[in-house]
Design goal:
heterodimer, A: mainly alpha, two-stranded antiparallel ribbon, two-stranded antiparallel sheet, globular, B: about 180 residues, alpha+beta, 2 domains, 3-stranded antiparallel beta sheet, elongated
Chain lengths: ~375, ~180
């Protein structure tokens, strides 16, 4: 019992460590990637240089971090924590404090169901590389993601600010319209692999079409994949779907927030981006699957086999998962810095008039094809 | 008669209305820049292709933009050959100044050929709008705006005031330790 608990705690710690660090690094990725995309150089002024003579080797080691601006997230954190934490005098103090916590909490708990590797055996004990092996993981994650909107709505409601309320309302209606589209796009995948358990879903994606095409979600559900990406970005409330935040018209639901409470909302945005990246990887790009990598090693479709130790296989699989997640993070960042934002009515129109019917049609077509094939 | 030119919104064809291909095209364009600059930055780090710029940014305090020689920057007072200011305290600049940032106190010049000289000549940079009228108004070419000093910053309003000594011998920055 205690051993199981320890293993779960270690898995949770690993997941949390990875997620938190990636989210903090997202501030850096955002600055640097946008800079490179726009022929700029990006933030590179937060330097740590020790003044003593004996610290020269340490300074030499710190130099690449200095030049790349990797200390900016730390500078941001220091700034956020030392800023004045202002609660509007006519706002609701309790809800105002609760809202960012709710937002962050529901963004974080979803990661528990994401499998980041196959089951491994250590000392005769089978460990699932996943914090919680939930049977209805897909439903759980979407339940948590949609609970996240409570934080946003409460933030708007408790701030006693019209713009904040407007931001909160926009966020809730946006979430409602895209939650439906996103749920329907996932139905296609769930129908094909026949499971709501994410680990099972990933395992089912290890098969091959015609013997050589990996049977990933993106291969069997290309339209679902595109719709998921589009609706997923809407879930993160980032440009081009940033109507709830809309810096140029309403500041958004966090207009009355300062200091680390604002930081938590900011962090939630990044966490949701990572969440959507993880989900897109798990559902559509085969999760931790490496093409042609089986439990004993590579088995290529042309007959060649390379035997690899089981531990190396697990490490390769985890590496594959992280690479795919990072790719999606990169893609979302590229989209965020490429596109202008939607107007609010365009956003809802896109959700209800186009994404929802297409997702519905996708489910119908998938169902008919499945019936036809399995018959 | 007023000519109105009506610019119609460009009609989108089906391919563009599908939105995804156009998004893909946009991301392709920006990521082309991204990967080009990323490769160039990496090459620069190991000392290759330094001539090909990866960014348009000028790293400001280390590298300075070369200003055109006519640009109006911080003021200075020109000197006679003996080092005294050319200014004859005629008050033309003080009069013409739209921001009223020049304060001159005149006194008699020991040389009988010159009528007056400034006892003190202060410019409040916190008020100055850099219009250059003082330079145009000066009959003696005693005030110029060609020091090329742009990094004007101070911790207080008092710190933004320049006295005659500072104007005659312009140094970089007005307060020590504020702007290099």
């Amino acid at each position: 019992m205690i051993v199981t608990l320890t293993i779960q705690a270690v898995l949770a710690a690993i997941t949390l460590f990875f997620v938190f660090n990636l989210a903090a690094l997202h501030t850096w990725i955002e600055r640097k990637q946008s800079a490179l995309m726009q022929d700029r150089i990006g933030a590179n002024r937060a330097w740590i240089v020790l003044p003593w003579k004996w610290a020269a080797p340490i300074n030499w080691l710190l130099m690449p971090f200095n030049v790349l601006g990797l200390f900016h997230p730390i500078a941001d954190a220091i700034k956020m924590f030392t800023k004045e934490d202002y609660i509007p005098p006519k706002g609701n103090k309790f809800l105002h404090t609760l809202a960012p916590c709710l937002s962050l909490f529901f963004a974080l708990v979803g990661f528990a169901a994401i499998p980041f590797g196959n089951t491994i055996e250590i000392g005769g004990r089978v460990i699932n590389l996943q914090v919680a092996n939930i049977n209805v993981a897909v439903l759980y994650i979407f339940a948590m993601a949609s609970m996240g909107v409570y934080g946003v709505v409460l933030a708007g409601f408790s701030s006693n600010n019209n713009y904040a309320v407007l931001g909160g309302l926009r966020a809730s209606s946006q979430m409602l319209s895209y939650e439906i589209a996103i749920g329907l796009t996932i139905m296609g995948v769930v129908m094909i692999y026949g499971s709501l358990n994410l680990q099972e879903l990933v395992k089912a994606q290890g098969k091959y079409l015609f013997g050589w095409v990996p049977l990933w979600g993106a291969v069997v559900q290309p339209i679902g994949f595109l719709l998921f990406l589009a609706a997923g970005i809407a879930e993160t409330k980032r440009i081009p779907y940033d109507a709830p935040e809309g810096e140029s018209e309403i500041i958004g639901y966090f207009v009355e927030y300062s200091g680390m409470k604002f930081g938590m909302f900011f962090f939630t945005d990044y966490l949701e981006t990572i969440m959507i990246a993880c989900l897109a990887t798990t559902l559509f790009l085969g999760g931790w699957q490496v093409p042609y990598l089986h439990e004993t090693g590579f088995q290529f479709p042309w007959g060649a086999t390379v035997l690899i130790a089981p531990l190396v296989v697990s490490i390769l699989q985890m590496f594959s998962f992280i690479t795919k997640v990072l790719f999606f993070c990169w893609l979302f960042m590229a989209i965020r810095w490429t596109l202008p934002r939607f107007r609010y009515d365009q956003l809802l129109k896109l959700g209800w008039y186009y994404m929802f019917p297409i997702a519905l049609a996708n489910v119908f077509v998938t169902a008919i094809l499945l019936l036809w094939i399995t018959k | 008669m007023i000519h109105t030119k009506i610019v119609d919104r460009p009609k989108l064809n089906l391919w563009e209305k599908l939105y995804f291909p156009e998004v893909f095209r946009g991301v392709l364009l920006t990521s082309k820049h991204f990967f080009k600059n990323l490769t160039l930055h990496m090459f620069h780090a190991i000392g290759l292709f330094r001539k090909v710029a990866a960014m348009v940014t000028i790293q400001y305090p280390e590298k300075l933009w070369k200003l055109p020689s006519r640009s109006r920057t911080r003021h200075r007072l020109t000197k006679r050959e003996d080092g005294s200011p050319r200014c004859v305290a005629c008050m033309m600049c003080e009069t013409v100044c739209p921001a009223r940032c020049i304060y001159i106190v005149a006194e008699e010049h020991p040389d009988p050929n010159i009528e007056k000289r400034p006892k003190s000549f202060d410019i409040d940079l916190g008020k100055c709008v850099y219009c250059g009228f003082c330079v145009e108004a000066c009959p003696e070419d005693a005030i110029r705006m060609d020091t090329q000093i742009l990094d004007i910053a101070a911790y207080s309003r008092e710190g933004m005031k320049l006295d005659m000594n500072e104007l005659l011998n312009p140094t970089k920055g007005i307060q020590k330790g504020v702007a290099s």
